[in-house]
TrEMBL record:
<comment type="subunit">
    <text>Homodimer; disulfide-linked, upon oxidation. 5 homodimers assemble to form a ring-like decamer.</text>
</comment>
<dbReference type="InterPro" id="IPR017559">
    <property type="entry name" value="AhpC"/>
</dbReference>
<dbReference type="InterPro" id="IPR024706">
    <property type="entry name" value="Peroxiredoxin_AhpC-typ"/>
</dbReference>
<dbReference type="GO" id="GO:0008379">
    <property type="term" value="F:thioredoxin peroxidase activity"/>
</dbReference>
<keyword id="KW-0560">Oxidoreductase</keyword>
<dbReference type="Pfam" id="PF10417">
    <property type="entry name" value="1-cysPrx_C"/>
</dbReference>
<dbReference type="GO" id="GO:0005829">
    <property type="term" value="C:cytosol"/>
</dbReference>
<keyword id="KW-0963">Cytoplasm</keyword>
<dbReference type="InterPro" id="IPR000866">
    <property type="entry name" value="AhpC/TSA"/>
</dbReference>
<comment type="function">
    <text>Thiol-specific peroxidase that catalyzes the reduction of hydrogen peroxide and organic hydroperoxides to water and alcohols, respectively. Plays a role in cell protection against oxidative stress by detoxifying peroxides.</text>
</comment>
<dbReference type="GO" id="GO:0045454">
    <property type="term" value="P:cell redox homeostasis"/>
</dbReference>
<dbReference type="GO" id="GO:0006979">
    <property type="term" value="P:response to oxidative stress"/>
</dbReference>
<dbReference type="GO" id="GO:0042744">
    <property type="term" value="P:hydrogen peroxide catabolic process"/>
</dbReference>
<dbReference type="InterPro" id="IPR013766">
    <property type="entry name" value="Thioredoxin_domain"/>
</dbReference>
<keyword id="KW-0575">Peroxidase</keyword>
<dbReference type="GO" id="GO:0033554">
    <property type="term" value="P:cellular response to stress"/>
</dbReference>
<keyword id="KW-0676">Redox-active center</keyword>
Length: 189
């Protein structure tokens, strides 16, 4: 049985990322103060991974406008991320940090390490500015994720963070009605 990481704090880490043509050092301190997405994937130079990372790249400007930073993470090195970025048109459009986690520490902290393979599951974690995990989505290796749905989930998380007592129903979109759980609402949905 596993324990959920929802509402737990981001664990300390130090890592090197490939970001906009440079190698940059990152830690948990760089993540705090803004909404963040940690987007884990199994490995560079694979098949489903570039479709997902490219999809996130296509939605990155929208996420940035929402005050969200994206960090993709695999157990590859930052050198491998650069090589992939330089040789793939899909990966070449990425402008968010690509974190190398060759020791697997970050991947293990988020509970998505496949130990016998040294690879990450497809795990998505959304954190609020305080570093608390608010959304978790984990897929098996052959199932790709949707950046459009990720954007919607982040919008919902941001909405409820600023609207105490309200919740977002299934398929909620910005501007749609929310719910205010109460005794009067029981059995009426």
């Amino acid at each position: 049985m596993s324990t959920s990481l929802i509402n737990t704090k981001l664990q300390p880490f130090n890592a090197t990322a490939y970001h906009n043509g440079d190698f940059v050092e990152l830690s948990e301190q760089d993540v705090l103060g803004k909404w963040s997405i940690f987007f884990f994937y199994p490995a560079d130079f694979t098949f489903v991974c570039p479709t997902e990372l490219g999809d996130v790249a296509d939605h990155y400007a929208q996420l940035q406008e929402m005050g969200v930073e994206v960090y993709s993470v695999s157990t590859d090195t930052h050198f491998t991320h650069k090589a992939w970025h330089d040789t793939s048109d899909t990966i070449g459009k990425i402008t968010y940090p690509m974190i190398g986690d060759p020791t697997g520490r970050i991947t293990r902290n988020f509970g998505v390490m496949i130990e016998e393979e040294g690879l990450a599951l497809r795990g998505t974690f959304v954190m609020n500015p305080e570093g608390e995990i608010k959304i978790i989505e984990t897929h098996d290796l052959g199932i790709g994720r949707s950046a459009k749905e990720l954007v919607r989930k982040v919008q919902a998380a941001q909405y409820i963070a600023t609207h105490d007592g309200e919740v977002c129903p299934a398929s909620w979109q910005p501007g749609a009605e929310t719910l205010a759980p109460s005794l009067d609402l029981v059995g009426k949905i």
